[in-house]
Amino acid sequence: MIEIICNDRLGKKVRVKCNPDDTIKDLKLLIAAQTGTKPEKIVLKKWYNIYKDHITLEDYEIHDGMNLEMYYQ
Amino acid sequence: MAHDDQDLDGQAEVSMTIEQTNALRISLGMKPLTEGKSTEKQQEAEENFAKHKDELAKKAARKDLIDTLAKEKAKAQRNVVLEGPTLGAASDEEDETGDSLAWVKRQREKDEKRKLKVKKKAALLARKKELELTEMDQAATSAYKASDLKGLRVDHDLEDVMAGGESILTLKDSTIAELEEEGDVLQSVQLADSERNRKNVDNKKKKGAYNVYDDDEFGNVGTKRNILSQYDEEIDGPQKSGFVINEEGAVDLEQQRKDVSEQMRANAIALTYDKAQEIKDYYTQEEMVAFKKPKKKRKPRRDREGDIEGAADEQQSGSAGRDHGSRRRRAVLDEDEDAMDVDSPADQVNESSVQSKTINYSMSNRNTNTDNVNFVDDDDLQSALARTRRLQLQKRSKTDVEDMAKAALQIRDDDTLPEGAVDLSATSEFVRNLATAPTPKALEPPRPNRPALPKDESAPPKVDAMDVDEAPTEERGGWDMDEAVDEEPHEKSTMKAEGDDKSDDGEFMPAPIEEEPLIGAGLASTLALLTQKGFVEKASPEEVERLRKQNEKRTWLAEQKKLEKIREMQRLKEKELKREKNKQQQGKGQQQQQHRDEHDWYREEQEARYAERERARETEERFKKYIPDVNLEYHDEYGRKLNQKEAFRQLSHKFHGKTSGKMKTERRLRKIEDELKMEKMSSNDTPLGTAGALVERTRAAGAAHVVLSVGNRSALPADVSFASIKPNKPITKPTPRPHVTTTTVIDTDRNVNTFNREKVTFGLGGSVAAAAAPIANKPVASQSPSSRPSSPQSSSAFQPVTATTFPAKRKTDIEDGRETKKSRT
């Protein structure tokens, strides 16, 4: 289990517990459950990299305690 | 479900517990969270890492072991004890007694043995070498004798070699090139060294080229030094001294000595001298050749005639400096002729004198050859030559003049007027003067001493008049003949002019009256006459060209007009035809009509297009001949014609929207005004017309003078007023007849004496003239003096009569003018 912090810098900051082999989609679902936004509206970014849904956190080398940027589309 | 906890930056962080997350995950259909952070891969990686670490540790341990083993080995080797006997043990072994004396003995024996061995070897070697050397010597001496040295050169002077006693000569070191050149050379090393040393020392001393004690007598006797001999070595290379060994391998001293003595004998100077030799004043020819500068080659001189001419010119210019008249020159020439009379004897005398002179010279210098020696100081010969030349020249010049005269005659014979030339003969000029202006000057009686004909007319015949065969002029000088000739024909021609023209050959006739074309024959002949008289100028080629162009243009325009008319007519005709056609067609059926209309429309279109094309072609054709005569003229705002510069200025001003400043404009305007004034001004009168006024006044007064003031009065007295003046004599114009000599216009009755202090003027100031002008100008202002009738009637009763007769007279004048005009045209 790892914890990831997602911040949209507009007032929402979510600490999500997940497995490293979860996909980004799973992560988005979890975030959506916590914040109440639709998962398909969430865009996760780290700098200019937009994380794609079908790739696991592990493959993106997202580790415990990392901060992701959250945008809405 | 989610709980918020306050973050550092005051943001609410949303998070869920693990249980909540798991519940959510299950509801979403995902597997629950795994305990721990690692995944399978991570674990594997950890295992791998541990394994790797183990391996590394094992390796290190093994290496340690090996190291320690090696250390131990080395330690063991270091600590090994050497085997075998020690120093002490060895000595014990060799000499049990341990006696050092015996050891020394033994050592000595050993040493001696070794030495002996070496000696033997050396002796053997020496013997061998000796044998070899002797063999070599023998071989060499047997093959190489003194005679083999034949022809070898020794590089030293014989004296040097002999002075040094016995010396060894070796082959000189030389380059291949030198070897090729001079073969083997022998030299003594010591001598060469000493020579080199001497040279070096000399160079160090830096001796000058001049040596006080060095003289011809100190050097080799009989050999003279060259100029700047110190450089001989630098220029020609080192001097070769030395001698050559002869056939016996020796040097023949006797021969050497003989050579030297021979050389000296060859340069011997004879001390005997000719006591009988006399001292001569002149060089002999051989001496002359040595003494004289070699003459430069000169350009070939001019031909003989030219030469003579040049000489004659000189002569003449010389004489011209002294005399200016022909008479004196003639005298000089006469003298020359006198000299000529005795020409041949004089020549002979001269020749003989020349000969005698040469003899004299030869007497003084018996042995010399004087044939080619130039005697410039022979004045007699020179003068004789000059005389002959002059005479020749005289003859030549005389014939020249005759030739010239003949040539002139010939030219006159085939003298024809070129086309369109104005002929100016004396006759024509005279006639013209008669016709145009019968002025008093023309009436002047011809001066008696003046020849009737101008000089240039009579010039050609004068040469004929001269009798060439007759002697008197023959002996005269060449150029003063002209004057004398000039006078003669003048007299002759004047005589002939008085006498009968036809009595002689006709060559002395005055210029014939030029045949004039008759005016009555037509306009062409009139024009011809006018051109002949020079009244009408012949048009220049440019003008002719311009006229031609203008004419062409005019004809072109006329043609265009004609064509235009014809075309207009055609068009009208066509229109008419069409209208008729339309009328005819209107009678036919409607349906057919429509169909046909369309068809017609198309056809018409075609036709119209064709016609258009045709017209374009025609216009093009027409404008082929169109050459416009363009003459650009520019005018300013006053209508003045502008020249190029002004036109450009105007254009430029217009273009730039900028004109010249006030001052400049004013200046220009002033200039224009002045020009206008100048144009208006009469050429023979002042701007105020005073001259005209004066003429009028004098005419009215019948006097040649005008009274400006009488006594103190500045104005005219009443009784002298203009109106009361009545000339008692009719004013007559001087008729162009020779017998009328003068006409007096001064009134004799009203004598000048009556007004004692009259101021009489002929050209007057403006004020008085102006005062007189109103009176004078009243009736006759419009009439010019020349047009004034000279009838006695009008002049006697002056004012009233003129007033009444004026219109009638004027009329006749006009009529006259018309008549004259008619006659002119």
TrEMBL record, chain A:
<keyword id="KW-0833">Ubl conjugation pathway</keyword>
<dbReference type="Pfam" id="PF00240">
    <property type="entry name" value="ubiquitin"/>
</dbReference>
<dbReference type="InterPro" id="IPR039732">
    <property type="entry name" value="Hub1/Ubl5"/>
</dbReference>
<protein>
    <recommendedName>
        <fullName>Ubiquitin-like modifier HUB1</fullName>
    </recommendedName>
</protein>
<feature type="domain" description="Ubiquitin-like">
    <location>
        <begin position="2"/>
        <end position="73"/>
    </location>
</feature>
<dbReference type="InterPro" id="IPR029071">
    <property type="entry name" value="Ubiquitin-like_domsf"/>
</dbReference>
<dbReference type="InterPro" id="IPR000626">
    <property type="entry name" value="Ubiquitin-like_dom"/>
</dbReference>
Automatic annotation (TrEMBL), chain B:
<feature type="compositionally biased region" description="Low complexity">
    <location>
        <begin position="778"/>
        <end position="796"/>
    </location>
</feature>
<feature type="compositionally biased region" description="Basic and acidic residues">
    <location>
        <begin position="810"/>
        <end position="825"/>
    </location>
</feature>
<dbReference type="GO" id="GO:0046540">
    <property type="term" value="C:U4/U6 x U5 tri-snRNP complex"/>
</dbReference>
<keyword id="KW-0508">mRNA splicing</keyword>
<protein>
    <recommendedName>
        <fullName>SART-1 protein</fullName>
    </recommendedName>
</protein>
<feature type="region of interest" description="Disordered">
    <location>
        <begin position="285"/>
        <end position="375"/>
    </location>
</feature>
<feature type="compositionally biased region" description="Low complexity">
    <location>
        <begin position="584"/>
        <end position="593"/>
    </location>
</feature>
<dbReference type="Pfam" id="PF03343">
    <property type="entry name" value="SART-1"/>
</dbReference>
<feature type="compositionally biased region" description="Low complexity">
    <location>
        <begin position="365"/>
        <end position="375"/>
    </location>
</feature>
<feature type="compositionally biased region" description="Basic residues">
    <location>
        <begin position="292"/>
        <end position="301"/>
    </location>
</feature>
<feature type="region of interest" description="Disordered">
    <location>
        <begin position="778"/>
        <end position="825"/>
    </location>
</feature>
<comment type="similarity">
    <text>Belongs to the SNU66/SART1 family.</text>
</comment>
<feature type="region of interest" description="Disordered">
    <location>
        <begin position="433"/>
        <end position="510"/>
    </location>
</feature>
<dbReference type="GO" id="GO:0045292">
    <property type="term" value="P:mRNA cis splicing, via spliceosome"/>
</dbReference>
<feature type="compositionally biased region" description="Polar residues">
    <location>
        <begin position="347"/>
        <end position="364"/>
    </location>
</feature>
<keyword id="KW-0539">Nucleus</keyword>
<feature type="region of interest" description="Disordered">
    <location>
        <begin position="27"/>
        <end position="55"/>
    </location>
</feature>
<keyword id="KW-0507">mRNA processing</keyword>
<feature type="compositionally biased region" description="Basic and acidic residues">
    <location>
        <begin position="594"/>
        <end position="618"/>
    </location>
</feature>
<feature type="region of interest" description="Disordered">
    <location>
        <begin position="570"/>
        <end position="618"/>
    </location>
</feature>
<dbReference type="Pfam" id="PF19252">
    <property type="entry name" value="HIND"/>
</dbReference>
<dbReference type="GO" id="GO:0000481">
    <property type="term" value="P:maturation of 5S rRNA"/>
</dbReference>
